[in-house]
């Protein structure tokens, strides 16, 4: 399982992530999520900007127990699908 080592807020809903294998990438969360349900709080950009790393889980989180799966974020940034055995395969682009 990939873990996030650091997160940096950039602007809007863009963040930069550094993973435990050295991969660094940027992602626009607004393109990944609809801001409904628990994620409705993201409509308040000042709330979104308070993103932090949960070192115990290796993911990013916000207050209110909102977090995002680091493997999904890794896949979006790299195009590699993370497999349970610790190996990754290149995602086929449609």
Keywords:
three-stranded antiparallel β-sheet, alpha+beta, 94 residues, 37% strand, globular, NE0471 N-terminal domain-like
Would you mind describing this structure in some detail?
- This protein has 94 residues and is α+β, with helices and mostly antiparallel strands.
- It has one domain: NE0471 N-terminal domain-like.
- Helix content is 18%, strand content 37%.
- It has three helices and eight strands.
- The mean pLDDT is 89.
SSE layout:
Blueprint: E1 4-11, E2 14-19, E3 24-28, H1 29-32, H2 45-48, E4 52-54, E5 59-62, E6 66-68, H3 70-78, E7 80-82, E8 88-90
Antiparallel strand pairs: 1-2, 2-3, 4-5, 5-6, 7-8
What's a quick, concise take on this entry?
By secondary structure, the protein is α+β, with helices and mostly antiparallel strands. It has helices at residues 29-32, 45-48, 70-78; strands at 4-11, 14-19, 24-28, 52-54, 59-62, 66-68, 80-82, 88-90.
- What is the 3D form? globular
Distance between the termini: 25 Å
If you average the pLDDT, what whole number results?
89
Radius of gyration: 13 Å
Low-pLDDT residue intervals, each spanning 5 or more residues:
none
Q: Would you give the CATH topology?
A: NE0471 N-terminal domain-like
Strand fraction: 35-45%
Order of helices and strands: EEEHHEEEHEE
- The CATH class assignment is Alpha Beta
Tell me the domain tally. Answer: 1
Please give the share of residues in helix: 10-25%
Let me know the largest β-sheet. Answer: 3 strands, antiparallel
CATH H-level superfamily = NE0471-like N-terminal domain
As laid out across the biggest beta sheet, the strand order is 1-2-3
The name of the CATH architecture is 2-Layer Sandwich
Number of helices in the DSSP assignment? 3
The counted number of beta strands is 8
Structural class: alpha+beta
User: Oligomer, anyone?
Assistant: single chain
């Amino acid at each position: 399982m990939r873990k996030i080592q650091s997160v940096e807020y950039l602007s809007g809903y863009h963040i930069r992530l550094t993973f435990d294998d050295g991969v660094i990438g940027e992602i626009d969360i607004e393109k990944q999520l609809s801001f409904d349900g628990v994620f409705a709080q993201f409509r308040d950009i000042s709330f979104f900007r308070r993103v932090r790393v949960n070192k115990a889980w290796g993911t990013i989180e916000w207050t209110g127990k909102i977090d995002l799966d680091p493997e999904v974020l890794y896949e979006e940034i790299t195009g590699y699908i993370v497999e349970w055995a610790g190996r990754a395969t290149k995602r086929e682009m449609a």
